[in-house]
Each structure stands twice: as C-alpha cells, then as structure tokens.
C-alpha cells in the first residue's frame, strides 16, 4: 500500500519533468533557428589560434586558458570542446620547450576523448559532402598535388544534442538529471586537436608511448569505430586509430589505417587528411624511404594549407627540408621560396620556420652569405615574438652557430652553440624520452626484457642516421650527463644475468663520464681521431669516414696536407736547436703550424654541427667477445665500476669471467684511507719516520683490501696469471694495488711480486692497436726541475745526467720553450718530466704536462688535445699529485686521475707512468730511469716490474729522500717499503705492441 501511494505521489512530478524536458528541447531547437545556440569552441579560442600563429606562445597559452573557462561544463566535468583548449595549450608549451607540461595537456585532452568516446554519434551530420570551390587566396603555390582529390566543404558548426531523454528513469532509479540541449560544435577542429594530441604525445614520449597505458586505451577505444556506421565521418576515426597504432609501435597497421583515412566518400580531402599524410611521411622516413616521405610531406603541406592549418604546413615543409638534406639532394629545397612568400600573408610562425630551414640548406651548401641574409630575415621576424626563445629560436641558434663557424667567427659560433645547448638541456626530445624510459623501467612498468631493449635503443651509440637526421639532438645527448639511466641499464643486465652486456655497459659509463667533460660532448675528439690519428689506430669504418670527410671538406683536407708537411719539417729539426738560424726556422714552422691547426679547429667545429658521421673511436666502444679473443693467455682483467649503490667487480680472461658486488661509498673510502695512512700518508710533503718505513703495519690493511676487492681470492687463484690489467673506478684510482698482500699472514707477498700489473681508464683501452711502439732511436724529451719543492737544481741535473747515460737520444727542454708545448709534444715520442707537477685549477684539463710553459697558449692538457694531433707515445710523470698523498682527507672520486689519463691518451699517448704521490727522491729517479732504459726492449709491464724489484733491493739513502724524516742514527734498510715503489700507476698497451730494436723493418716504418 505504501509503495502504491509513493508511486501515485511521484507521478505528477514525472509528468512535470517530462513537460519541462519537452519545452527545453523545443526551446533549444528554436534558439538554434535564430542563431542563439551556444558554440564550442567559443570565439575566444579562434582568437587564441591567431595569437599562436603569430609565434606569441606565452600570450597564446594565456588566451587558451581563458577560452577554456568558457568551455562546456556539466555535472560530469568538461566536455570534448576542452580537447581543443588542452591540446593548443600543450602546443604553446611545446613550442617553448616545456615538454613535461605540454605532455600533461595532451594527456588531459586524450583522457577527455576517452571519457566521451561516443560523442560523434550525437552529431547531426549531413549525409552527403560537397566540394569546396572557394578559397582562392588559400591555394598553395609551392607545388601541384599528384593526388586526384578535392577538398570537401565542411561547415564550422554542427548541431549536437547534449543531455538525456531518459530523465524519468533517472528520477526513479537515481542519478543526475540532464536536460537535453542543442549546441553548435566545430567537430573537425575537435578531431584535428585529438589527432594532434595523439601525434605530439607520441613525438614527445618516443618509444615510451608504446608502453603507456593511455596509448593502449586509445587503440582499444578507437578500434570499435565510435562514429556513425557507414558514414563519411568514419575517416576521422581511421586517422585517429592510425595515429594511435603509430604511438604503440605498430607501423604496418598505422599505415593501413592512415591510408584509409585520406579521403572521405572516395574523393574528398578533409581536415585530417594532412595529419594522415604527414604521419605516413614520418613512417616512410623512419624506414629510409626518403622519396616516398618527401612526396608525403609535400602533399601534407598542400592539404594543410587548404584548410588553413599553418602549423602543420610548417611541420610538413620542415620535415620535407630535413628529408631533402638527409637524402643528399643538391640545391635549395624547391618548396621553400614560394612557400615563404605565401606564408608572409598568413603566419609569422610559418614564415620564420621556412626561412630558418632555407638558411640551414644554404649553410649546408656552403652558401654562407645567403644563409646569413636569411638568418637576418628570420631574426627580424622573431624579434617581437616569443618564438625566438622556443623551438624555432633554437633552430635559429643552430644555423647561426654553423654559419659563424663557416665564416671563421669562433666567438659568435661558440655563443650561439652555448645558447642552443642551454635550451636543449631542458627541452631535448631525446633526453626527455630517455627520462620516460628510465621511469618505466625503474618503476617496473615494463618487464626486464623490455626494459633492456628500451635502454639499448635510448642509450645507443650515436649512429650515422642519428647525425644525419638530427645533429642537435645527438649533440645534446652526448654532451648532457645521464649516468643514472646507464646505471639502471647496468642493473637490469645484471638481473638478467647478461654478464657480457653488463661489462660492456660499464665501459659505456666510463666513456660517457669522459665525453660529458669535453666541448661538444666528445664530438670534436671523435673528428680529430677520425681525420688525424695514425691509420694504425683506426678501424676500416673510421678510415672510410676519413676518406668521405676529406672529400666533403676540401678546405680542411688542404689544411691537413699543409700541417703534415710542416710537421715533417719540424721533425727533421732538433727538439732544442743550438744554432740560432735553426731556432728561428723552428719558430717560424711552429708558428705556421699553430695557425693552420687553429684554422682546422674552426672547420672541425663547423663539421661537428653538420649532418655527417664520425665514430667515437676514442675511447673505443667495447666489444667484449673480440676483446677477450685478443687477450694473450695468462692475462686477466680486473675491472671495477662504482655506482651510487655499490662497487661492482669483474674479473675475466680469455676463457672465463667472474663478478662480485662489494661495499662502496664511505666504507670503501675509509678502508683505502686506512691503508694509505698505515703506509705513512698524511700530507703531500710531510716527512715519514724510519720506524714506519722499516715496519710492516701496512700489510694487514693491504691484505684486508685484497680480500675485499677479490671476494676472498687465494694466492693460488693467481697462478698462471702473468699480467693483471686493472680498470679502477671511483676512489680505487688512489689505491696502490701493487702493494696488496696475498697469501698467509707472516708469509704474504705483494701483488706485483705475483704478477705484472698495468692499468687502463676503460677496458677497451687495455687492448693494443696496430701503432708501433717506441724504439731505441726514439726522440726523448726531458724536463728537469725540482721534483721536490725545496730541491736544489743540481739534484735534478745529476738525475738527468744519469738518465742520459742510460737512455739514448735524450734532449733536455729548456725554459722558456721556443715553441708551444702542444706543438713540441707532437714532435717527440717520449717525455719525462722530472719536476713537481702543479695542478691548482678546478678544471682537470687546465694543468700543464711540461710545466715549463705553464700559463701560456698551448701549455695545458686541454690544449694538447687540440690539433696538431699527437703527443708523446710514452709519458713519465713522477711528480704527479693525487688525493692519495693525503689519505683521502677530502672525499675524492678519482676523476682527477681518470680524466687526466683519458686526456693524455686522447692526445695520442699510450704508455703513461704517473705517481699517485710524489716521493721526490733517489728512489723515484732510479725507478724512472730503470723503467725508461728497458722500454725499447720489452713490454712496459715487464720493464716496470723489473724496476720495482730493483728498487726494493736497493739500500735506502736517507739523505737523498726528502720525504724521509732525518734521524740521529744511521739507518741500514732497503727501499722495500711500498711508500717508495707502489705509488706509481702504469697505463700501457698489451705486450704485443712492444717493438725491439732488432726489428729493423718496424723501426724503419716507425721513422717513416
């Protein structure tokens, strides 16, 4: 009875609501007839579009936000018109390089599409389309379409009914009453923006898009074709589905859907035709089908122009110009000039972009004057707009840097390049994609297998195609540190038990650390090596690149020939001429070489920005299989990698490998510090008492360090190991591995007594190349100074006299040097610096290896890396300082040693002996002399081991050791304490590089 009563009492309400709904519907239709129905997007939105086309992106973003406030809202939130506001706000942010914020807007737009995926089913479409016969002023003039289609005429407004007719049921069952209401909606603008949001989000996310849940949801929603069945509007859904397939990495399906979407009713172009053509062009481009891609981009620009989609015209013609360059086409890209004239009446954004593209093509063709004129035209157009600080402004800076280098204006080129990289650091698409991929993997949103594949792609070595397609993004990648993703990839490889890949990644990490400290991220070093390094140091691929680059840049090739001739003349002269006329000849030749080398360096900067490849051959990438195959029997590599979480150790030889994870961080630093202090290290000049030097307190911590670093290896594990190659990392660069103790306590022996030891900054650098080693007739340069600060000059001179009696062809370099040391160093094969090395600058490349010309042009390690290529093959620096001499009083990560070694080797050196701490006395002079006199006859490791054995057996002469504290009693002890012999770090190639003087053919070739 109560239920019946309730039903009766509600009936009048239902009738009333129904009547109201009917009246509302009639009113809606009546308002539509008299033009009072609300329109979406509103007029403010189109005003914002005009601001956007003018390149005023900040103002445009503000205007799109204002238009959004006039958007349709209901109890369910925003409606599909907000797709436009979000997308175009995203575009404004994208153009200013705010990739993260832009992606958020595209994501918001696409979430709205998913929430209202069936909205097109409510649109009152006409059944038949009509051709658009008007718009002569919109007709593009830069090409003629080969497609037999015509544009259809689309009204800017379609009626759509919002609300519901089942409100009576809603009242009975509960829910929100939504009165039916008619709106006028620009359907094709909403669909255009939906497609743009999908496409741009894919561009920003790269391969990460395929693993984003939203991409899958879009494919699923669009695959059911949410449009009126068998209707021409279905082409818009085909286009969106094709774009979604492309985002998910399904290129074949994408091409199929995009192809179906090109025309409506089998004959008409529509507002998404250009979007589909552009996407098809990108697919063809990615598949190296440049002719097809070029045609698609032109067709996309024509269709976009008809529908006044100026931003898409810009994008299509920009990619057409890129395709023109990548395909190696000569001359100006044909559409640019007429399209620029056309754009002048339509869009500042379009005009400026086209002019910048034309400037790059002119610069590529070495038409510098034309490029400069075009850049000035672009600058004037941009001067009043935000686009000067956005993506177009970055492209402008790129071409400005290129043309400045072409014109020889290094200062302007460097300034433009710095501005470009400042923008790229926050706005690089490749770096942003890498960050997304890293987040996907570290949050376990993809499997380890997929994560490994994604890292392999995102962290790939720069390839020929990378340089050809986008040199700016590639330079940004190699110049910007991204150690965290590399470490995460390493951890993924470890979890997947891919030990060989793990080891290869450790070398990638080391190379990346080096590259990111260099101008242009190692690109200049790569070019110097490919173009100027000895052919024996390069592989076949690099030699082919040299041939190609020399042919492309004849001006550089001519300078290179002149430099070679000058170096040959300099090599025929003594290092320190005695006759005045010879000295003047040397100065003249060196001055000419400096000028030519400087001109070469300017051209190298120009080439570095161009779309040409030069492999990063130094340090070489590691191919572990070939590396292990080349290892001599009895050689073992012990490699370490210090990450933010731990120290990882790898040991491997020709046939096997092992790995272990060790404690890192502060704990490792403390262990190393304890061992160094037990050896007497507290300050670089602090004297050490005889009690310490005659004791063995250092052996216990040295044994503990050996056990910790080798996972408790036994002495027998090193049986048969003739040579140990150590690749340290982090604070391990300061650890004297030579002194580590193996064997039982009381009967232990030092590691260098068990096996020969050498070091390498990277694993791959431990492999010898085909360059010949120094011989007995090698030209040796010696710097003689005070190895210890308070030494009298006669001490160094006496040491030099002994050296000269043991090593032939030694020339003492006298201060002041007649020619810059970077030129002089290229003229000798061996350099020994018997002087204290001063390294006060925070710049690790700012110290002077020869010391004699410190503070002068050409003196620093950074200068030595420049042309002319080459420095002594063998360098001995017994006066080098590291944090080891203070027992790591300040936390140190080994960068000073690692980068100094890399810098010397990048200049051409292969055998380097430097001190972790400077002892500065007789033992140091003796070690150096004995090592140098044996180098021509045997391998560096054999020569050094012999020198150490001799030093340990020598009597300690306290009066000739400035670091030993004076004593009242006469000491009779040997120099067998590791303070004297374990502080040296030998970097050397493998034994098969050794050349004896008996090999007359090799010696003759060396002279040539």
Observed structural traits:
Serine Threonine Protein Phosphatase 5, Tetratricopeptide repeat, disordered N terminus, 41 helices, six-stranded mixed sheet, single chain, alpha/beta, elongated, 6 domains, disordered C terminus, 1008 residues
Give an overview of the whole structure.
This protein has 41 helices and 21 strands. It is α/β, with parallel strands linked by helices. The protein has six domains: 37-127 and 185-328, Serine Threonine Protein Phosphatase 5, Tetratricopeptide repeat (Alpha Horseshoe); 330-424; 425-519, no CATH class; 525-609, no CATH class; 624-671 and 679-763, no CATH class; 766-920 and 983-1007, Rossmann fold. The strands form six sheets. The chain has a six-stranded mixed β-sheet with strand order 17-16-18-19-20-21, with helices on both faces. Helix 34 links the parallel strand 16 and strand 17 (810-813). Mean pLDDT is 91; it is low at 1-35 and 993-1008.
Please mark out the parts with pLDDT under 50 across 5 or more consecutive residues, or reply none. Answer: 1-35, 993-1008
User: Fraction of residues in helices?
Assistant: 40-55%
Instruction: Briefly note the CATH topology name of the largest domain.
Output: Serine Threonine Protein Phosphatase 5, Tetratricopeptide repeat
Largest sheet: 6 strands, mixed
| Protein structure class | alpha/beta
CATH architecture of the largest domain: Alpha Horseshoe
Number of helices: 41
E-strand count = 21
Fourth-level CATH superfamily of the largest domain: Tetratricopeptide repeat domain
Q: Using only CA atoms, what is the Rg?
A: 36 Å
- Kindly report how far apart the N and C termini lie: 117 Å
């Amino acid at each position: 009875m109560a239920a019946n009563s309730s039903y009766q009492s509600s009936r009048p309400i239902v009738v009333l609501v129904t009547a109201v709904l009917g009246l509302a519907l009639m009113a809606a239709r009546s308002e539509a007839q008299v033009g009072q129905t609300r329109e979406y997007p509103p007029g403010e939105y189109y005003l914002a579009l005009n601001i956007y086309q003018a390149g005023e992106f900040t103002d445009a973003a503000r205007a799109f936000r204002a238009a959004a406030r006039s958007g349709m809202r209901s109890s369910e939130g925003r409606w599909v018109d907000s797709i436009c506001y979000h997308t175009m706000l995203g575009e404004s942010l994208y153009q200013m390089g705010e990739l993260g914020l832009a992606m958020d807007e595209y994501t918001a737009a696409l979430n709205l599409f998913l929430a209202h995926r069936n909205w097109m089913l409510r649109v009152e479409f006409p059944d038949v389309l009509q051709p658009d016969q008007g718009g002569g002023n919109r007709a593009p003039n830069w090409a003629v379409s080969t497609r037999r289609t015509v544009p259809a005429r689309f009204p800017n407004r379609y009626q759509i009914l919002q609300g519901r007719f089942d409100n009576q049921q809603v009242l009975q069952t509960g829910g929100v009453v939504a009165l039916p209401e008619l709106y006028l909606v620009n359907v094709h603008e909403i669909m255009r923006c939906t497609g743009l949001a999908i496409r741009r989000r894919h561009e920003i996310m790269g391969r990460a898009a395929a693993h984003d849940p939203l991409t899958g949801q879009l494919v699923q929603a669009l695959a059911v074709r949410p449009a009126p069945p068998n209707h021409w509007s279905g082409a818009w859904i085909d286009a969106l589905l094709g774009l979604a397939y492309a985002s998910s990495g399904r290129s074949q399906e994408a091409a199929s859907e995009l192809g179906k979407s090109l025309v409506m009713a089998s004959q008409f172009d529509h507002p998404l035709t250009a979007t589909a053509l552009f996407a098809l062009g990108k697919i063809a481009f990615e598949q190296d089908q440049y002719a097809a891609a070029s045609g698609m981009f032109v067709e996309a620009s024509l269709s976009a122009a008809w529908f006044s989609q100026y931003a898409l015209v810009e994008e299509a013609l920009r990619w057409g110009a890129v395709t023109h360059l990548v395909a190696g086409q000569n001359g100006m890209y044909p559409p640019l000039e007429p399209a620029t004239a056309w754009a002048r009446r339509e869009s500042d954004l379009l005009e400026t972009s086209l002019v910048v593209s034309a400037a790059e093509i002119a610069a590529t063709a070495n038409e510098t004057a034309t490029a400069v004129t075009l850049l000035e035209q672009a600058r004037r157009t941009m001067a009043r707009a935000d686009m000067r600080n956005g993506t177009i402004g970055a492209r402008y800076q790129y071409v400005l840097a290129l043309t400045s280098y072409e014109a020889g204006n290094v200062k302007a080129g460097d300034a433009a390049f710095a501005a470009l990289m400042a923008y790229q650091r926050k706005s690089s698409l490749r770096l942003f994609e890498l960050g997304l991929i890293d987040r996907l993997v570290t949050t376990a949103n993809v499997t380890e297998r997929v994560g490994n594949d994604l890292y392999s792609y995102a962290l790939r070595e720069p390839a020929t195609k990378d340089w050809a397609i986008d040199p700016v993004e590639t330079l940004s990648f190699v110049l910007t540190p991204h150690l965290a993703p590399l470490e995460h990839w390493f951890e993924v490889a470890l979890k997947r038990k891919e030990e060989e890949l793990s080891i290869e990644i450790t070398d990638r990490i080391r190379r990346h650390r080096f590259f990111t400290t260099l101008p242009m991220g190692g690109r200049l070093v790569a070019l110097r090596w490919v173009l100027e390094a000895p052919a024996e140091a390069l592989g076949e691929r690099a030699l082919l690149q040299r041939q190609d680059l020399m042919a492309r840049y004849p001006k550089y090739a001519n300078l290179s020939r002149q430099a070679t001739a000058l170096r040959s003349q300099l090599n025929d002269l003594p290092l320190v001429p005695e006759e005045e006329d010879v000295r003047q000849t040397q100065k003249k030749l060196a001055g000419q070489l400096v000028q030519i080398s400087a001109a070469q360096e300017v051209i190298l900067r120009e080439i570095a920005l161009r779309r040409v490849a030069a492999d990063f051959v130094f340090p070489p990438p590691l191919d572990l299989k070939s590396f292990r195959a080349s290892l001599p029997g009895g050689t073992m590599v012990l490699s370490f990698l210090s990450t933010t979480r731990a120290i990882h150790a790898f040991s491997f030889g020709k046939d096997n490998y092992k790995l272990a994870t060790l404690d890192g961080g502060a704990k490792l630093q403390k262990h190393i510090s304890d061992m160094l202090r037990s050896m007497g290290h507290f300050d670089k000049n602090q004297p050490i008492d005889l009690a310490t030097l005659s004791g063995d307190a250092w052996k216990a911590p040295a044994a503990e360090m050996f056990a910790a670093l080798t996972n408790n290896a036994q002495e027998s594990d090193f049986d048969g190991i003739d040579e140990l190659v150590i690749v340290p990392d982090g604070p391990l660069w300061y650890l004297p591995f030579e002194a580590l103790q193996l064997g039982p306590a009381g009967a232990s022996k030092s590691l260098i007594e068990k096996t020969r030891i050498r070091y390498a900054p990277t694993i791959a650098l431990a492999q010898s190349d085909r360059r010949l080693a120094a011989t007995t007739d090698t030209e040796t340069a010696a710097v003689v100074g005070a190895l210890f600060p308070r030494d009298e000059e006669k001490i160094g001179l006496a040491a030099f006299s002994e050296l000269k009696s043991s090593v032939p062809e030694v020339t003492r370099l006298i201060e002041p040097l007649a020619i810059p040391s970077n030129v002089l160093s290229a003229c000798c094969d061996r350099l020994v610096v018997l002087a204290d090395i001063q390294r006060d600058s925070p710049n690790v490349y700012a110290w002077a290896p020869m010391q004699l010309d410190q503070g002068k042009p050409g003196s620093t390690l950074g200068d030595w890396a420049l042309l002319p290529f080459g420095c002594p093959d063998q360098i001995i620096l017994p006066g080098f300082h590291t944090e080891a001499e203070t027992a790591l009083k300040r936390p140190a990560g080994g960068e000073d040693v690692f980068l100094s070694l890399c810098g010397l080797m990048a200049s051409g050196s292969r055998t380097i002996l430097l001190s972790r701490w400077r002892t500065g006395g007789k033992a140091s002079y003796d070690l150096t002399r004995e090592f140098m006199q044996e180098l021509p006859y045997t391998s560096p490791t054999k020569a050094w081991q012999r020198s150490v054995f001799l030093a340990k057996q020598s009597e300690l002469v306290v009066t000739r050791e400035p670091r030993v504290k004076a004593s009242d009693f006469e000491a009779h002890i040997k120099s067998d304490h590791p303070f004297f012999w374990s502080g040296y770090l030998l970097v050397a190639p493998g034994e098969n590089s050794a050349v004896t003087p008996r090999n007359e053919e090799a010696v003759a070739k060396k002279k040539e």
